[in-house]
């Protein structure tokens, strides 16, 4: 996309319009209450939450994107100076409240920016998203897929959030006389907390700002700031630590649950260098556990790496297998990861280049989204135009356009992957519901 046209999750100067996929702080770095560089497009729910995070933000700049609808934005082409129309559709990313993917079409081609997303194969919301995406693409090839590559490594295999939520419930049920501490961010994992509240018929404690967010999200009777009303407390992720749990256990028996797709990384203690390695690899190398330390088999992939702390693979990001399925569905010409890191970034093309358009038969032929037509279910029939890889000439044309895109560049941020570098006993993510 031409420099100077649009920016996604990036807030430096130089674009005509700006798009925000969701409100996690690693996507809003540079955005502030005084920000005034141009119209800001986001989902309706994000627009509702924005003033809480940025109290003095000029609300006249906000533009709401309705989910699953094309919106047309009139801009000036920086190269020709003529008017140009950018089409954009927001699609439910099923990451945190308000999170969206953005599908763009214009003179620059077709671009898909996932933001952070989780599309589980079993999720009805993800199925609806897939249907929307395929129907919106029609015969277009996605020239560049800007993708959430947080877990773009085959070692990241974890269950659906539904399964992980049951693991959390099992842990709580097996500790009937303990207080429970759960580490969360300022947005996200609400469904997990609602599930716990529903199963145990209890309220969940949250800190005062989080209670305000819950009220904005429409949850009025489930959460409380009174510790006397419940034994389950959802605390800020930054305050969740071994030190905290050890301190709490001097007062009352307490366990901590960290829902995350990431294994914990703990700073090595000088007196015990082995601690670092054992905790770092705990999720993926169970042979290190002695019999007495083994987690309950019923808890599946739950890890109990400290006597007071469980790590549960509940993630708002797609695991590797889900990323692979997503790319098979989209079949982009090129892929770029939106999460960069000097230490662990791997170009998604390393794993998925073979799945890009032209490199394998189109899976869109096999994807038949169900539609409801006048109360009846019907199946979308793939058309000739869906056969992306068989149209050699068209693919080549699109590839040439993609090469042009690479040359021109696209203002889409690579999210600072410091959020994934966790040091110290605390999980000090800058904030994203991993
Ligand atoms: Zn996020």
What secondary-structure arrangement, pairings included, does this model have?
Layout: E1 6-8, E2 17-19, E3 40-43, H1 44-53, E4 62-65, E5 70-76, E6 83-92, E7 100-106, E8 109-113, H2 124-137, E9 144-147, H3 161-173, E10 179-184, H4 190-200, E11 204-205, H5 208-216, E12 223-224, E13 232-236, H6 242-248, E14 254-259, H7 274-280, E15 303-306, E16 309-312, H8 320-330, E17 334-337, E18 339-340, H9 348-352, E19 370-373, E20 376-379, H10 392-408, E21 411-412, E22 415-416
Parallel strand pairs: 1-2, 1-21, 2-3, 3-4, 8-9, 9-17, 10-13, 10-14, 11-12, 14-16, 18-22
Antiparallel strand pairs: 5-6, 6-7, 7-8, 15-16, 19-20
This protein binds zinc ion.
Main location: nucleus
Organism: Xanthoceras sorbifolium
Domain DNA repair metallo-beta-lactamase: 224-339
